[in-house]
Design goal:
Layout: H1 12-28, E1 31-36, E2 41-44, H2 46-51, H3 65-68, H4 74-80, E3 84-91, E4 94-104, E5 110-119, H5 126-149, H6 165-178, E6 184-187, H7 194-203, E7 212-216, H8 225-230, H9 248-251, E8 256-260, H10 267-279, E9 281-282, E10 291-292, E11 296-301, H11 305-310, H12 316-322, E12 325-328, H13 339-354, E13 359-360, H14 362-368, H15 376-390, E14 396-397, H16 399-405, H17 425-443, H18 448-455, H19 459-469
Parallel strand pairs: 6-11, 6-12, 7-8, 8-11, 13-14
Antiparallel strand pairs: 1-2, 1-5, 3-4, 4-5, 9-10
Length: about 475
């Protein structure tokens, strides 16, 4: 096997171990790659080059790994020195199961990393994924029970379901947010999962053992918001409790304060919130005592804050204070490819709670794709619950079951159109190729040399394709 690193990297025993183990990993994996401390590719085998659709492994040598593999986390391994032993990476609409290991020299200095693609097809992992999902459901149930007794979180990052490029980007930014103790702003339509993501960020952060306190600004009457946030001193007003009433800032001290629908906050309270965030201290209503607080704020809104700043209904200085790290959550209609995994997760949760069986066919999932989903995932869950309730086929949801409960409004021109079966990709591509060759020959009046030039292929390749077509 080709050496993984150039000779100027003397890695001693670590080098010997890698050179001994790498051939076994390479043989058992679908691809392997190595980078140096500057994230440059120093080695890649033929299998991985084929998987990445590279003309040859040599074209990648010396290139920044992020240019060849945009969604790679190898630089993260080099920077942290910690392995990522099991991860799912999206590349060219394909999901790859990858393990990444840092490489150290004798002094413990990180000199690079090596990665192996364990699976380029998730189908063999179906039993393992099913078992993991069952265990995760049991853990979620236990977590929800504990959350009722304390101010903890019920969700982690696995609860934000999706494997589309958009969903994977949201998860990537959420992982980034969990490792940085800075304010986060979640933007997205109602029902997209902003609170799930907020709890997931908290549960993966250094504040996970501290309280997570959420408040829906839109649900609290305006005249009670200040007391809700900052608390009330004894006897602050007529009828006030004689004991101190703690506000959300005090309850979240040391942990995370989640401000849902922060765009609905009135301007006077925006100024007080800004001061609390800037100074790290609050003054309860009716008190002259200032109390220090240590909270990490995650804010969320479904409103257009840029437009609100322009019309003066939201303070720009508060916006800049909250928006240190922004995560935009795409609406469901922009990631319909996630419908399958979302339905599986939602049906598992619904049926587990009701003790009912539940399954959806491929045609049923395709039927869901004919709707615009203004209520996003929250609406999808509601629709699946109604479909299960009305189902007369032991909880099996097909296209007919879905269309019975699907709203009339649709993003497509014919929401009740008959479903077309998906044809194998190889057949579709072969038909498209044959059509292109026929068109080229027609334009070139049968001259194969000109047709090959027009198609951008060699004449010998054209002859081979014509022979397969005949």
């Amino acid at each position: 096997m080709t050496q993984l690193f150039s000779d100027n990297h003397k890695t001693g025993l670590t080098r010997e171990l890698i050179d001994a183990l790498a051939p076994m990993f390479e043989q058992a994996s679908a691809g392997a790659i190595a980078i140096d401390a500057d994230n440059r590719i120093t080695w890649i085998n033929q299998s991985y080059a084929d998987l990445l659709q590279l003309p040859a492994p040599s074209v990648a040598i010396g290139e920044d790994v992020r240019r060849i593999i945009p969604h790679t986390r190898m630089p993260e391994v080099v920077a942290s020195g910690k392995p990522l032993l099991l991860d799912i990476m999206e590349h060219n609409h394909q999901q790859l199961v990858v393990t990444r290991i840092p490489v150290q020299d004798d002094d413990g200095k990180i000199v690079g990393a090596i990665a192996f693609v364990l699976y380029d097809d998730l189908q063999p992992l179906t039993p393992l994924v099913a078992k993991f999902r069952r265990l995760h459901q049991d853990l979620a149930a236990a977590r929800k029970a504990l959350a009722k007794k304390s101010r903890g979180t019920r969700y982690n990052l696995t609860d934000f379901v999706g494997a589309s490029p958009q969903a994977l980007e949201v998860k990537r930014r959420a992982r980034l947010a969990s490792g940085r103790d800075v304010p986060v702003l979640l933007l997205g339509e109602t029902g997209t999962g902003k609170e799930v993501l907020a709890q997931a960020i908290h549960s993966a952060s250094a504040r996970a053992h501290k309280p997570f306190v959420g408040v829906n600004v839109a649900a609290v009457p305006e005249n009670l918001l200040e007391a809700e946030f900052f608390g009330v001193a004894p006897g602050a007003y007529t009828g006030a409790d004689k004991r101190t009433r703690e506000g959300k800032f005090q309850l979240a001290n040391g942990g995370t304060l989640f401000l849902d629908e922060v765009g609905d906050m009135p301007l006077p309270l925006q100024a007080k919130l800004l001061r609390a965030l800037q100074e790290g201290e609050i003054e309860p209503l009716g008190s002259n005592t200032v109390s220090p607080v240590d909270v990490r704020v995650i804010a969320a809104t479904s409103r257009n804050l840029d437009a609100m700043i322009a019309d003066g209904s939201f303070r720009s200085d508060l916006y800049y204070r909250l928006n240190v790290l922004e995560i935009s959550i795409p609406p469901l209609r922009d990631r319909l490819v996630d419908l399958g995994v979302l339905c599986e997760a939602l049906l598992g949760d619904i049926c587990d709670g009701q003790g009912l069986p539940g399954e959806i066919t491929d045609e049923g999932i395709a039927a869901l794709g004919h709707y615009d989903w203004p209520g996003n995932i929250r609406e999808l869950r509601n629709l699946l619950e109604r479909a299960l309730t009305m189902s007369e086929d032991d909880g099996l949801l097909d296209a007919e079951s879905i269309f019975k409960v699907l709203p009339a409004a649709s993003s497509g021109p014919e929401p009740r159109m008959s479903l077309r079966r998906v044809r194998p990709l190889a057949r579709v591509m072969a038909e498209a190729e044959a059509h292109a060759i026929e068109e080229a020959l027609l334009v070139c009046r049968g001259n194969r040399t000109r047709a090959a030039r027009l198609l951008g292929i060699s004449r010998s390749v054209l002859y081979e394709k014509l022979a397969r077509m005949s």
